[in-house]
Amino acid sequence: MKIAIGSDHGGFELKKELVEFLKNNGHNVKDFGTHTAESCDYPKFSYCVANAVTKGEFARGVLICKSGIGSNIVANKVPGIRAAVCNSEEEARLSREHNDANIIVFGSKFVSAQDAKNILKIWLSTEHVGERHKRRIDQITEIERKILEGE
Predict the structure, then answer these.
(1) Which residues participate directly in catalysis (predicted)?
(2) Which domain range does residue 27 map to?
(3) Does the annotation mark 48 as catalytic?
(4) Domain containing residue 34: CATH number
(5) Rounded CA gap, 105 and 70, in Å?
(6) Residues of the chain predicted below pLDDT 50
(7) Number of domains the chain contains
């Protein structure tokens, strides 16, 4: 699977581990940065990953910052993105089954590297169940359309 990944300085160390984990599991990964632990701002990296996913260049995205919240907010500003902060395996499973999340967001303050790998593995292998949940995804898409068209 083609996966876009990005982080700010708060998620830099965890990102390095997740890039290696993803590549070792056969995924094609593009690292959108940051590429150092030097202080930087998360919106740039979050937008780059979200934009690449919404354009269809990547099937899924991974974002990491200290809390996960800031990156999640930025990603969800991009039409077509359904980002979810997932600091547990159950959240990861539900974000895919119910919400068809296309970006997972980690708070490096709240998950260990091993837990993030386990969570990511579940998130990548879980399919959207459709049914009533598809109806809700369609409603989200309609809201985005109305906003973009100025309704």
Answers:
(1) 65, 98
(2) 2-148
(3) no
(4) 3.40.1400.10
(5) 10
(6) none
(7) 1
Half-sphere exposure of 93 toward its Cβ, with a 13 Å CA cutoff? Answer: 5
Catalytic residue among 9, 48, 65, 86: 65
List the end-to-end C-alpha distance of the chain, in Å, as a whole number. Answer: 36
In angstroms, rounded to a whole number, what is the distance separating the alpha carbons of residues 30 and 41?
A: 19
Q: pLDDT digit string (tens) for 33-51?
A: 999 999 999 999 999 999 9
Which position has the token pair 């974000």?
95
DSSP 3-64: EEEEE-GGGHHHHHHHHHHHHHTT-EEEE-S--SSS---HHHHHHHHHHHHHTTSSSEEEEE
Residue 65: active-site member: yes
Contact call for residues 100 and 82 (beta carbons, < 8 A) = yes
Measured CA to CA, the distance from residue 150 to residue 15 in angstroms comes to: 37
Residue pair 14/108 in contact by the 8 Å Cβ criterion: yes
